[in-house]
Write a structure and sequence with these properties.
about 60 residues; 3 helices; elongated; mainly alpha
Length: about 60
């Protein structure tokens, strides 16, 4: 799971940096790009935990 989070973080970080470089090259905010990429990578990597609990509670009935 950590590998998926690392890959997602790198992809989202580079996508955000590339978008800022293309649209606003004079105002690139690296801390903003890193924090957004980390938050999205962290959230999507644990999304399966939410659905796993729901699926197990349905199967137990």
């Amino acid at each position: 799971m950590v590998l998926i989070m690392e890959i997602t973080f790198i992809l989202l970080g580079s996508l955000g940096y590339g978008t800022d470089y293309f649209f606003r090259p004079s105002k690139i905010d690296l801390s903003k790009n890193v924090s957004i990429a980390f938050g999205l990578a962290f959230g999507t990597s644990f999304m399966d935990v939410i659905f796993l609990k729901r699926k197990q509670s349905i199967d137990s009935n």
